[in-house]
Automatic annotation (TrEMBL):
The gene is birc5b. The lineage of its organism: Eukaryota, Metazoa, Chordata, Craniata, Vertebrata. It is found in: Chromosome, Centromere; Cytoplasm, Cytoskeleton, Spindle. Pfam families: BIR. This is Survivin. One of its GO terms (molecular function) is metal ion binding.
């Protein structure tokens, strides 16, 4: 994706538009400035090439993403359909954040254990 986004600046608005339509938003970090993330399933993708198709890349890496399988556009969803999609999106987000916190906690426990063993 470095050919598409560099330092948060879009090089091709047509490619950027296609990525957005496929559900991707630019979500850079200090270590990975060119990452795009699906707003729904939170699948992160990097290393985009200009010829990559955002829809097929999304489907290949996250085939169960409900955003990919929507039969209607957002403006045609009923309130109940929108609520159900949003509920699932939040469930995915909470699960991902929970896994991150658990991984962080495990790393902290390991570091603390090593430090304590060094004191003995």
């Amino acid at each position: 994706m470095s050919s598409i986004l560099r330092g948060g600046i879009c090089r091709s608005s047509a490619v950027f538009s296609q990525m957005a339509k496929a559900g991707f938003v630019h979500c850079p970090s200090e270590n990975e400035p060119d990452v795009a993330c699906c707003f729904y399933c939170l699948r992160e993708l990097e290393g985009w090439e200009p010829e990559d198709n955002p829809w097929s890349e999304h489907a290949k890496r996250s085939p169960n993403c409900a955003f990919l399988h929507m039969k209607k556009t957002f403006d045609k969803l009923t309130a109940i359909e929108y609520f159900q999609l949003e509920q699932e999106r939040l469930r995915i987000y909470i699960r991902k954040m929970g896994h991150r916190k658990i991984a962080f906690f495990r790393d902290e426990v390991e570091t603390t254990s090593k430090n304590l063993r060094a004191l003995i």
